[in-house]
């Protein structure tokens, strides 16, 4: 009996595993096709300058229009792109697409719009990022000052000398660099003074309870003050409530981003919002209604 049960459990387990690895393989193949079939799209979430209340730029966020599945969230496919190395190709596409959009907004007369792009650690370390960025800037004839790369702490920490060299080359192009999800990775504060960076992005995890959790309030305050002492600008992500905005304003945070102002929008809707010249109430969807 016990033996049978064990065998059944084993059979069930392998069937389950096979189903899982098949689904995974399916997803990988679909992602490979997605690149060739142009199924990725960039959404743009406004950043707001706290002092003026004006839109100071946008963060480009990738979505996958998977046929038969609706919009797929990057949280579900970026890790797979990273594990398979496909992120390098997709990352190149993202940089190109964002530069193209900066160019189109400029020509449409709603610009200049400053756009930040998320860069994976793998993309950073595979090499050639500087050449890639330069090519995109030249191809779309945009001012390099309008492009910003968002890097995470963990992707900057593996080899300091090499990292500094790459960052210097990127900065020499005229673009700016920010540290995304600041405070959540393995970072050494010593690097902040050695790395040529422009901005810290306070992670949503600290912003969420900034008005109710004294520890989060202290951390946010410390990041703002430290950033300013180091002559860095500071932006908070994930702002959803009045009280969060008030706290950030009171303590001198430079910029904010979050559903309070707007969800990430398709390019044309972002453009409409800019033409309107004022902040909108949050629309219904962030373009990812469906999960995988
Ligand atoms: P991230 O760079 O930290 O981007 C911020 C995420 O928070 C976005 O999720 C955004 O939609 C979401 N968000 C913005 N405001 C709020 C808010 O008020 N409340 C809440 N709860 N969430 C908010 P999204 O678009 O799903 O992207 C998730 C992550 O996927 C990004 O985190 C980034 O790490 C990665 N990602 C997105 N696009 C790209 C890309 O083009 N390349 C790479 N390598 N990674 C990307
Ligand atoms: Mg980001
Ligand atoms: Mg972030
Ligand atoms: Mg984040």
Automatic annotation (TrEMBL):
TM region positions: none
| All residue ranges annotated as the EAL domain in the record | 24-278
Domain of life from the UniProt record: Bacteria
Q: What is this protein called?
A: GGDEF domain-containing protein
Q: Which organism is it from?
A: Massilia glaciei
């Amino acid at each position: 009996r016990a033996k049978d049960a064990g065998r059944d459990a084993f059979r069930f387990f392998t069937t389950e595993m096979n189903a899982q690895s098949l689904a995974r393989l399916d997803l990988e193949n679909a992602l490979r096709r997605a690149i060739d079939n142009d199924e990725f799209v960039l959404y743009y979430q406004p950043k707001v300058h706290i002092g003026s209340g004006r839109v100071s730029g946008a963060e480009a966020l990738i979505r996958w229009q998977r046929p038969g599945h609706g919009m797929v969230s990057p949280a579900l496919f970026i890790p797979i792109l990273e594990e398979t190395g496909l992120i390098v190709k997709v990352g190149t596409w993202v940089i190109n697409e964002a530069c193209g959009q900066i160019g189109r907004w400029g020509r449409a007369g709603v610009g200049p719009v400053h756009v930040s792009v998320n860069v994976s650690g793998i993309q950073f370390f595979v090499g050639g990022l500087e050449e890639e960025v330069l090519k995109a800037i030249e191809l779309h004839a945009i001012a390099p000052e309008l492009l910003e790369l968002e890097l995470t702490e963990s992707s900057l920490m593996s080899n300091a000398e090499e990292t500094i060299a790459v960052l210097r080359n990127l900065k020499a192009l005229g673009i700016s660099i920010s540290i995304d999800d600041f405070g959540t990775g393995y970072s050494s504060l010593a690097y902040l003074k050695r790395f040529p960076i422009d901005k810290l992005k306070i992670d949503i995890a600290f912003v969420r309870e900034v008005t109710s959790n004294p520890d989060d309030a202290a951390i946010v305050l410390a990041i703002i003050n430290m950033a300013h002492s180091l002559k860095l600008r500071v932006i908070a992500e994930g702002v959803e409530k009045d009280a969060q905005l008030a706290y950030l304003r009171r303590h001198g945070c430079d910029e904010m981003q979050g559903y309070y102002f707007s969800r990430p929008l398709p390019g044309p809707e972002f453009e409409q919002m800019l033409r309107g010249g004022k902040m909108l109430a949050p629309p219904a969807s962030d373009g990812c209604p469906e999960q995988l």
